[in-house]
TrEMBL record, chains A, B, C, D:
Pfam family of the protein (one): Transglut_core
PANTHER family with a match to the protein in the record: BLL5557 PROTEIN (PTHR33490:SF12), BLR5614 PROTEIN-RELATED (PTHR33490)
Name of the protein in its database record: Transglutaminase family protein
Biological source species: Pontixanthobacter luteolus
Domain annotation Transglutaminase-like: ranges: 158-225
Origin: domain of life: Bacteria
UniProt cross-references to InterPro entries, sorted A to Z: Papain-like_cys_pep_sf (IPR038765), Transglutaminase-like (IPR002931)
Length: 265, 265, 265, 265
């Protein structure tokens, strides 16, 4: 059951500015691109650079005027799918180099400020059971409220206000996990059941499956419950939303429209 | 003129906990280790993992009780030494993949909040001249005041309070640079003229030297003026202090003493 | 030269909610109301209560549906008009009871966080000369930028971002003064040269005029430079904007229009 | 059953500075001072001014060197003692002038940021029942942890960290009440069961007793559960701790000792 994705957006600049985009399904072992097509307006400069953890690519542009992006792909997923609650904690001292950085605080995920809450509320659990309890706590205490947050909202803000959108749910999930010394990263993605259809964001935690060899792997978890690990198509990963915005502009750009459609055949 | 470094510290834990250390001079092309010796107490577990940007190593420990670290090395530096004021800005759209992540905000460096100030105060300059103006602004407006900040102090806090220690000066320098779209990272290091002798921290910015081929490189800059690029021995680099603490403990550890001595023969 | 004021605004509620208004020129010794007329839609409940420091009145309403307010007055000012720079500091230990509370921090004026900056930047001055230096520092470092702030912006935020509207300029002025132990309050007001015409806000500091008997008085100061002490008509005073909003609604109200006109004959 | 109070403290200054004290049981109708004695070192200047809401007095001092304060009193309470859960909400539009200011946000009580949480968690209740639910939520979710907070900790910080001391419990209680449009103030006080014995802080909310005539009154509530309304001796009231610190120094003072003893005969 491949997943079909289409996305298009446009923006306009009044003068030449630099733009960084990351919006395409990443070509990685766990997700095979059956087909992919990216059409963009002409730019003064266009270069691709690999993105964080070598998952996906970023596109550098030098744009002057109106710019349109049109993207379509078909993706087949082949992902490790263990139930999160069955997973075990990897003791910090056994974590590999690539997971260590995801223990640390980041711009929107101030895990140091959540340690006492996490200790009091989830301290009796560990590993996947603890992560699921965090997921359930967010699901039952938060209200999904488009417009209630913005680009500067942090996990701490969301924790106080108890509402937000997928970005905020993912930030809180990442923050609670890190506060318990579980590496956690932010994943921008496509997923078919997201309503309304848009770019989506979820969290990913580093845990180990006792039935599989090897020291640990990344497992997806969505506190909004809109996406499942088996139908999430990753675009990119990072410490938080600051790292994987689908569009970062270095100067003023007037965003004009966006359309995303994700379907599972 | 090699640089001689010695550092020792000790701590004690009441129960087994995980500890992450990063305190050794990094073995990288720009700094050759003539000699290096690390002596540590026995631990239940000890493993080395490579650190951020493959600069230096982190040591994972499982510690129960008192633990002592003793380190000595001799380092010869061979570093690119262009005067910062002569360097040119690399347009964002020409930045290589490894520099891109250092454009983004991090836990202690909220560059998004400094953009209007940076535009107003430094907007007339660019490249190395702009970075030097930021350096001079910090130097003349800040007071070096041990005890005035702590582990949770951010660049924004320091900007308001106009005082701090090397960590805070480096955070503000990194933040101002990023707010102007110059990639900037935080460097933990040793340097001979630091008073009192201790681990030190400086900033590093990604600029290009018009007299050298290639698209850009990292250049050290110390807003405290205690260290110079030609005598800084790097330990590690990261987005901010959260990434390169010399000791991160996952549980309670009683820190007992620390001694650092750095001399240039 | 009396000042003529007219103000009108309207809002609509979907269900009955409580509303608190404070928008009329205060009847106080320093400003004589030659005439005043307030016309409002019918409300389920309408009561007047005296406002902070007995300056002006607040109006409690119970509103269901559309509500219109229309106000006009003519005011003659007779205000103490000493040049601020000639005024002296009142030592804190000589401050009267009514000034003491204006030494303390408030929601939007976190003077505790500005003490080191104020000490470094303005520590060599005192009294009115110091207040004028603060005024000049704000005037020359801030940009008046409608839309750059909102109802949750604090003095610390404005200090970082170096921009704002009259509310923000007044908050920063109040905060710097308090950080130097000068009582300072926030004044909502009308003034003829405000562009575009709207409700205005300025600061007021407690200092003493050496040529006048008595221990101290309140003196107006406007860091935006749009209003002068001799043509400011006070509506109300408080610790900061939280205390003197012209409209506070306890429930959702849809604000529909506002028109203010202030002229000096 | 009168309450006996003794309190003593001392501090030292290196140069003449202004000090503001508020540490005595207030002489107000609800608490009769059977006896009271305040002994203080000589000061260059000493003046009493009335404190907030005319509850208690502040003492202004000009101190140079060591200063000692010794206080003893015996107080008989005669306080309105309705069970909080039986009290009714006073609709905002019926609030008297003196209660209105306690609806607004203050330095440590940012009620605007708690509105969505309060709506979600306590929105189904009103009046005293709602206040008791807030009290119970704090009691069961917070840990009393001396040393976990400091003078700059706000209600929002405490809400995130879920721990604090009496000051923090009172700030959160005040903040939750205000977020639901119930006027709430901060009360510094003495109480016999406080452990360890020290100055104490509780909240006070403005509600009405349906069995008593009149529109509303202030009712004490202590989320730490260490004090009861019938044995609390008020020192002063304010918007939050910024208003009623027992000692505010305008310059450096070295605090040396403090002893408080409160007993009920």
């Amino acid at each position: 059951m491949p997943i079909s994705i289409s996305a298009s957006f446009a923006f306009e600049t009044a003068e030449p500015i630099d733009i960084l985009l990351q919006f395409e399904a990443a070509a990685i072992p766990e997700q095979r691109l059956i087909s992919a097509r990216t059409t963009m307006s002409d730019a003064d400069h266009c270069a691709r650079v690999s993105a964080g953890d070598d998952i996906g690519e970023r596109i550098w542009l030098r744009v002057d005027g109106r710019f349109e992006v049109d993207y379509a792909s078909e993706v087949e997923l082949d992902r490790l799918l263990s139930p999160v609650s069955s997973l075990k904690r990897v003791p910090p001292h056994e974590l590999p180099a690539e997971a260590v950085k995801y223990l640390f605080d980041s711009r929107y995920c101030q895990a140091d400020r959540m340690q006492s809450f996490v200790h009091d509320e989830f301290g009796g659990l560990t590993g996947g059971a603890q992560i699921m309890a965090m997921h359930d706590w967010i699901s039952s205490n938060f209200t999904y409220a488009p417009g209630s947050s913005n680009a500067s909202t942090t996990a701490v803000d969301s924790f106080i206000e108890r509402r937000g959108v997928c970005r905020d749910y993912a930030h809180v999930m990442v923050t609670l996990a890190r506060a318990s010394a579980v590496p956690a990263r932010f994943v921008s993605c496509f997923a078919p059941q997201v309503t309304p259809q848009d770019f989506h964001a979820v969290a990913e935690v580093f845990l180990s499956d006792p039935t599989t060899p090897g020291g640990g792997a990344w497992y997806l978890i969505d506190a909004t419950n809109m996406a499942n690990a088996e139908d999430i198509v990753k675009i990119g990963v990072g410490r938080d939303a600051a790292d994987v915005s689908f569009m970062t502009s270095f100067g003023a750009a007037d965003f004009q429209c966006k359309e995303v459609a994700v379907t599972q055949s």
